[in-house]
UniProtKB/TrEMBL annotation:
Recorded family membership: Belongs to the 6-phosphogluconate dehydrogenase family.
Subunit architecture: Homodimer.
Catalytic activity: 6-phospho-D-gluconate + NADP(+) = D-ribulose 5-phosphate + CO2 + NADPH
Organism: Delitschia confertaspora ATCC 74209
Protein name: 6-phosphogluconate dehydrogenase, decarboxylating
């Protein structure tokens, strides 16, 4: 990522001082810059003193580092060489609490530390990413013109960058972007898995994804478009020239290795903010289960072969593929709703003053969750208003009209998945999500009664006004009076 960003800045006329523990890596980046004609635009530095002397003041420093202690170490090493007015853009996927801690550390020195989420993968780092900056407004205003130059552009040519909010808001919104990404990826891979069990070939599925990406509610969805593309890629270095996808093992590990943090943090945050995020939680659980392949093999053997998916028996394959498309769309919408609701709660809790119009703009192009229909038709009207009350798409008539339209297809797909032991956690969770969050007669009446029975946790009564808020109920019923140990067990047992 860092190398791509360095080349992108150089391409935009910026003189770049590069610093990395590996000189070889720096030499490679410089060679690429030279080959691209950006002569002497990138210079390498092996110590921070020389680097900071090279940079003109106020200095602009861009971090592209692994999350956690590395950022602290690099910041600590740089700080003695920096001065008031210098600006640091932390372009990694850092935890927002680390960002805010570093902002506090820098505050008295006049150095600005900005949390700048960057999305679109390493290709976008080179070609122009979606950029999600947060922090001190004065410093943000200084860097926005440069960021606008390097950012991805939406289809109207407008840069996919904008001030997100105070403190760690930029990194927070990027973290939730990744949570939404995981919900969408889970639904898409589940649909892919079902098409495989329909007996479809990899390239045939790629062609279906291409159609989905070309028109309808999944049009312009980056993750679908790369799915279409990757389905046709062959490894020409291998003698049998196989499709690469046919060789990829079913293992997603970066939550477990800690290589990336956003999968864990986005789910932790959904729980911390008390937001029901069925799709995101379950998508994460699928990643976790997939990571431990060895344990899955062991459990498979222990259970005499596990519960492998059967071939899907269908009357009408084309109709089922259309159901899959609608179900995938519904799960993508569920992911967006859940993610936005986490952001909304956190925004209120931290008072970040998030600019939702800018959140909309940065998700319009260049990022992994880019989904043109969702952006143009669902998010546009709601987020552009910048009104917090509009952010919850469960209250948006157009979103809910779409959900209602796709719900039967989602239900048919989940029912088929259950029938044939297909893996469909995010699709199933999305079905449950819509059922539950719009439900007005949940079985939690019984749950609440049991809680009151054993814990005197109180309940509200049906038919009373003013019971919509998540506040403790007013009633306790003495379901079973507490009795002494003697009364409970009888003398003989004591
Ligand atoms: N990969 C992606 O698609 C995306 C990644 N990101 C985020 O961008 C950041 C970078 O990602 P990525 O490029 O994939 O990760 P890499 O691990 O490839 O790059 C991290 C860089 O940090 C350097 N580094 C490690 N430790 C130190 C240290 N102590 N001091 C100075 N530099 C150090 C590494 O140096 P070296 O290895 O040379 O020793 C390497 O150049 C991460 O926060 C990631 O979450 C964001 C969006 C997309
Ligand atoms: O931030 C990203 C995209 O938005 C990076 O690609 C990141 O490496 C994805 O990893 P994870 O699936 O663990 O979030």
């Amino acid at each position: 990522m860092g190398g791509g960003l360095a080349l992108l800045f150089a391409e935009n006329g910026v003189n770049v001082g590069l610093s990395d523990p590996s000189e070889k890596m720096m030499d490679q980046v410089i060679e690429k810059a030279e080959n691209a004609g950006y002569h002497n635009k990138i210079k390498k530095f092996t110590d921070y003193g020389a680097l900071t002397k090279y940079l003109s003041k106020p200095r602009l420093l861009v971090f592209s580092l692994p999350h956690g202690s590395v950022g602290d170490k690099v910041l600590g090493g740089l700080m003695p060489h920096l001065s008031k007015g210098d600006i640091i853009l932390d372009c990694g996927n850092e935890h927002f609490a680390n960002t805010e801690r570093r902002q506090t550390k820098c505050k008295d020195t006049g150095i600005h530390y900005l949390g700048v989420g960057v999305s679109g993968g390493y290709q976008a780092a080179r070609a122009g990413p979606s950029i999600c900056p947060g922090g001190d407004e004065e410093a943000l205003k200084m860097v926005i013109p440069l960021l606008e130059r390097i950012a991805a552009k939406d289809k109207n040519g407008k840069p996919c960058v904008g001030i997100i909010g105070r403190g760690g808001a930029g990194h927070y919104v990027k973290m939730i972007h990744n949570g939404i990404e995981h919900g969408m990826m889970s639904a898409i891979c589940e649909a892919w898995g079902m098409m495989r069990k329909l007996g479809m070939g990899y390239e045939e599925i790629g062609n279906v994804f291409k159609k989905w990406n070309d028109s309808g509610e999944l049009r312009g969805t980056f993750l679908i478009s790369i799915g279409a593309d990757l389905s046709h890629k062959r490894d020409s270095a291998s003698p049998s020239n196989p499709l690469v996808i046919s060789q990829v093992l079913d293992k997603v590990v970066q939550d477990v290795t800690g290589e990336e943090g956003t999968g864990v943090w986005s789910n932790t945050e959904a729980i911390e903010q008390h937001v029901p995020a069925f799709t995101l939680n379950v998508a994460h659980a699928l990643r976790l289960a997939s990571a431990y392949r060895g344990e899955r093999v062991q459990a498979n053997e222990t259970s005499n072969g596990g519960f492998p998916a059967e071939k899907l028996q269908l009357q009408d394959k084309e109709a089922f593929i259309e159901d899959l498309r609608q179900a995938t769309y519904a799960a993508c919408v569920a992911s967006y709703i859940q993610g936005l609701n986490v952001i909304l709660r956190a925004d209120k809790a931290h008072d970040w003053n998030i600019n939702y119009a800018n959140v909309w703009q940065i998700w319009r192009g260049g990022c992994i969750i880019q989904a043109d229909y969702i952006s143009d038709v669902l998010l546009s009207a709601r987020l552009k208003s910048r009104n917090r009350e509009d952010v919850n798409l469960l209250f948006d008539p157009k979103t809910m009209e779409d959900v209602r339209k796709c719900y039967p297809a989602l239900r048919r797909v989940v029912a088929k998945a259950v029938e044939a032991d297909q893996v469909a956690p995010a699709l199933s969770a999305s079905l449950e999500y819509f059922k539950v969050v719009t439900g007005t007669d949940l079985p939690t009446s019984f749950y609440e009664a049991e809680l009151d029975y054993f814990g005197s946790h109180m309940f509200d009564k049906k038919g009373e006004k003013g019971t919509g808020a998540p506040t403790e109920g007013k009633y306790h019923f003495e379901w079973k009076p507490a009795t002494s140990q003697k009364q409970e067990y009888g003398k003989s047992k004591l």
